[in-house]
Structures are given as structure tokens and as C-alpha cells.
Amino acid sequence: xxxxxxxxxxxxxPEIKQVAQKEQRSVEYIMEGLKNGTIVIPxxxxxxxxxxxxxxxxxxxxxxxxxxxxxxxxxxxxxxxLDAAVEAKADSVMDLSTGGDLDYIRRExxxxxxxxxxxxxxxxxxxxxxQKKGSIAFMTEDDIFSTIEKQAKDGIDYMTLHCGVTLETxxxxxxxxxxxxxxxxxxxxxxxxxxxxxKQNPLFEKxxxxxxxxxxxDVTLSLGDGFRPGAIADATDRAQIHELILLGELHKxxxxxxxxSMIEGPGHVPIDQVIMNAQIEKSVCDGAPFYVLGxxxxxxxxxxxxxxxxxxxxxxxxxxxxxLCYVTKAEHVRLPTPEDVREGVIVTRIAxxxxxxxxxxxxxxxxxxEMSRARKALNWxxxxxxxxxxxxxxxxxxxxxxxEDDVCTMCGKFCAIKLLNKALRNQE
Length: 428
Hints:
This protein is α/β, with parallel strands linked by helices. The protein has 19 helices and 10 strands. The chain has helices spanning 3-8, 14-23, 27-36, 75-87, 102-112, 121-133, 141-154, 167-176, 185-197, 202-205, 207-217, 238-256, 271-284, 305-318, 338-358, 364-376, 380-386, 390-398, 416-427; strands at residues 39-40, 54-55, 61-66, 92-95, 116-119, 158-161, 220-223, 261-265, 290-293, 323-325. It has an 8-stranded parallel β-barrel, surrounded by 6 helices. Strands 1-2 form a two-stranded antiparallel ribbon.
């Protein structure tokens, strides 16, 4: 029985109860969200982790991408990235490995991860076929679906499946033209396969087969944006919107089948289109949870794309996005390091929290209020404790100690708060 089916029958699963407690919401609220498809709890029946809820009225969640590449395939390094993501309080990780023993890497990450784990099955299917047969064009439907089932059986909690990459959507992209065409690896793999074989995308054509597998293991479908814009010049074009319409229809089919699903979104989006993109997704996809990569709001900042994505992510989440996939400063440049992962999670959590304040998520403003009170009291231990990255704050303060313990070296004895606190006490 999936979480949706349990909610429909009025059964309060341990996962529903756990999410309700974490989110300061009623059990009834979580169950209603599951039933109408606005909340998901990505937790495979074969993965023993704490439940996490994603969706309407819940805290904005953060994902960290990890995984090997064809150039660097070192499992130990990826496990360090996993640990860094967990330490920085990511809500999930996605294993995007394309190099090395993919089954072994995935299973080791699942074994070690105390948080939600996602994957993109088409990566493994395409990479292994290319290694065996010389080209991803020789991939078969069975290659794809056997990989999906294998990953589901292993315990993957949610899967990115590019079901909206169709011949019709691809035709729109080609006819309209783009600066950067397709930047999604999954979208590119499937487009190459369709162009070579002159066949429809099996993930779209055989969607019922996906639903059967997902239902058996209660895998949450993350309906992937294979045509997400990779340049702000390409944002909100016909291919992106046509794919989104298809994903909205597939989300409805999944809900009817008792399968959890969420929608993935762009991508590179200029800041004046961010709010519109959030609103379009919520309207076209019936309020389905929105999982966003970034969005990156300018193309000119490689090395600083954790910042460009946090700008877009805060705004997108404030207007409806429920789940932010981090972008590290290494994006567009190289495979990220464990420190890149840690920093990327923290920066994205800041964006998520800023959005939660705007959305009036329970407990969000209280955190800031407690910090403000600690600052007024010049209580440095409490300020460090309340900060989103206590270790870093303590390091910064220790690197520049003031002459007076209750202030910092920015203002020293002329600290505005200290001066006024003293003046007010003298008035008493």
C-alpha cells in the first residue's frame, strides 16, 4: 500500500505521523495533501530512513546532487560528499553517478545515507549500453525498465524520469530554436535515442509500466524536465511549456493510480520570469510539489552559481516551489568537492528559509526572532548556536577577537546595541 492509498483509506502510517510532527501540521492536513497530490513523502518501502514531506504548506526542502563522472569515479569521495550533505542538513541526496560500478555505488550510498535518496535511472541504462554496444542509440525499452525496477528494488526513494521528452516536444524545440538546445543529460540521452530510432520515448509511451513499478515499492516519481532551459535566453519557451503540460497530465494519471509524483522545473530563468514559472507550474500541474534546479538567474557567473541559484531559488520557493535542488559553485566548471557540497547545501538552505518566512511556514519566523533576541542580548553563544552554519560562525569570530568580549571587531566599543542597552539601563 502506498502513502496515497493509506491516506485514502484513513490509515495513519508512521510516515504520515512523523511528517505531521516535524512540520507542525495536523495528521489530517498531511493526509489531505497526499490524497490531492499536493504533498509527497518520498520513502521507498525498502529504505529505512526518517520520513520527509515535500509540498504545500511544508518547509521548503533541499537536495544535494552527488555522484561519479566518467572522468572521476571514486566511491570514497562520493561518500564524503554524502557525509558533507548530511552534516549540512540536506533533506535528500541524488546519486547522479555515470562512472564506475553504478550498482555498487548506488547500494553503498543507500546503505550509508540516513536521508532520502534519489536517482536518474536513464543515466545507468544509457551509460551501460554505451559501454557494451558503443552508443546509447542501441538502448532498448527493456534496458530502461529493468534499470528502473532494479533501482526501485534497491530502495531508491524517488526517481527522475523524463517522461515529457516526446517526439512532439522535441519537434517544437527544433522548430523554435534555442541558444543551448538541451542541457539535461537525461533529456539529451532520450532525444538522441528518439532521433536515431525514430521512435517515441518509452517512458512516455509505457507510463503505465512505470506506475506498476513505482506502486510496488512506493517510489515517488520526479517527473523530469528534460527540456529545461540551460540559458536565460531559452527560458519559458514552447518546448519547456509543452513538456510541463505533459507532466501535469502524467501527474494526474499517477495520482489516480495511487502513485506519488512531483514536477521538476527549470533551470536558467531570468529573474523577471521566476514568479511566472512557479505560478504556471502550480496551475498546469494542479498544485503538484515543484522540484526546482536553482533556478540560475544569470549565465555569467561560473564559480559563483551557488549564489545565482540561491537568488532564483528564494524567489521561486516564495511563490510556490517546494523543493530546491542545490547548485554548487563548481556547476559548469568541474565535479564538486565535499566542501563544495557542504557550502552548496548551506547556501540553498538559506534561500529555502527565506522563502519559508514569506510562505509563513510554521516555525520559520520564530527562528529569526530568537536570533534577534540573542543579538540584542549580545549573547554570542546563543547567536552561534542559532546560526545556519554554527561551525563557520565560530571560526569567523575566533579569527578576529574584540577587546571587549560582548561585541565584535566591526564596531568594537561603539557597538550600537551595547551603547543603547547601557543608555536604557541608566534610564531605569
